[in-house]
Amino acid sequence: MTVACREVGNYSDPSPEAGSSLEAAGSTSGKSATCRTLEHTAGATEICGQPKNVIVLGSNLLELILALEVQPAGFADRFPFHAGDYDDPAQQIPYLGQWVTSQPANVGLVFSPSLEAIAKAEPDLILGSTVNAAQYELLSAVAPTLLFEWFDTETNLRTVATAVGRPEQAEQLLAEMEQQVTAAQAEFTPVVAEHPNVLMLATDPQLAQLALIPGRFSFCSTLMTTLGFQFVHSPALPEDDLSQPVPISLETLPQLNEADLIILLGYNDQANQLADMDAFEQHQLKGLQPQWEGNAIAQSLDASQAGRVYSIPLYLCAGLPGPIGTELYLEELKQQLLGPN
C-alpha cells in the first residue's frame, strides 16, 4: 500500500471546504409530500417514501445508519476481512457488528462494489462516498444513490437522516456527540497540561510506511486537537500542508522529538480473512509495538524513553468518524492516556 498525499491507510481526506455548500435538509418535491430532493457530492437525488433496503458502501456510512436505528441490507467494507454474506455480523464486521441485527449481503469493497450483489439485494437507497464517483451512474440505475465526503460527519448525518426519514434524530445525535467531547475535554485537561505535544503516525506493522498525521487531517487528529492537544509537525511544512498526511522515514523522527507522547495508528491491509472480530485489533497492530521498541531511532525519542507511546488501530478513528466512533475512540484514548480510574 502506498501512502499518498491525500490518503492514508485507504482513507481519503476531504478538502477543508468539503460539504460546506451542501443542503442537508433537502426540499419537498412537488410530485409528492413523501418525496424530498437531497443534495450531495454527485448532485441532487430525489428520495420518496421510507427506504427499507439500504446498501452502505463504507464503515463511515454503516455507522450513521446504525446510529439512526436503521439496519443495512448490504455492506461493503474497505478491506476484505470477511468473505461471503454477513450472517454473523458481530464476528464479521469490525466494531459495528454488535449493532447489526440484520444479515446484510456482502456487496464487495468500497472501492469496487459488486453491482450484481447490490442489485440482488433490491435496494431502495444506496449510500456511498466520493470514491464511488466513477460508479455513480451505474449505482443510480439500481436505486437512488447519495455520495458523501468520508469525514464530513455533520453534513453526512443530517443528509442520511433526512433520506431515511429521521431528521430530528440527527440533531439529537450531534448534540450527544458534542456533549461527549465537552465532557472529555475536562477529563483530559490534566494530561494536556502536562503532555500537550502529540506526534501521531500512521504506519504498517513493520514501520515501513510511516506517515506524519497533522492536526487537521481526519477525525483521528481533529478530535485530539479539540481535546486540547497540539500536533508536532516538521517546521519545513507550509501551513497549507497541515491538513494532509506526510510520508516520512524513520530517520526523520529525531527532528520531531519535541513530542510529549506518540500515537501509532496501526493498519494491516493484507487480505486476511479473520475468524472473528475478537482478533481484529491484534490483526491490525500485530508486531507494531515490538518493531517500535526494537528500533534504535524510535527508542531515541524522549516520549519512547518515558513510556508514552500508544498504539490504536487506524480503522477505529478513520473508519468511524461519527457518533459511535466518537464514543469508541474517546474510550480508547481514555484507557490508554488516562489509565484506570
CATH topology of the largest domain: Rossmann fold
Structural class per helix/strand content? alpha/beta
- What value does the Rg take, in angstroms? 20 Å
- What's the average pLDDT? 88
Number of helices: 12
In short:
With 341 residues, the protein is of the alpha/beta class.
Plain-language structure description:
There is one protein chain. With 341 residues, this protein is α/β, with parallel strands linked by helices. It folds into two domains: 7-172, Nitrogenase molybdenum iron protein domain (Rossmann fold, 3-Layer(aba) Sandwich); 181-338, Nitrogenase molybdenum iron protein domain (Rossmann fold, 3-Layer(aba) Sandwich), CATH 3.40.50.1980. 33% of the residues lie in helices and 20% in strands. The protein has helices at residues 59-67, 115-120, 136-142, 153-163, 167-194, 218-227, 280-285, 288-293, 296-299, 302-305, 314-319, 323-338; strands at residues 7-8, 11-12, 27-28, 35-40, 43-48, 54-57, 72-77, 105-109, 125-129, 145-148, 197-203, 210-212, 230-231, 246-248, 261-266, 309-313. The strands form four sheets. Strands 11, 12, 13, 14, 15 and 16 form a six-stranded mixed β-sheet that branches. The longest helix has 28 residues, at 167-194. It starts with 6 loop residues before the first strand and ends with a helix.
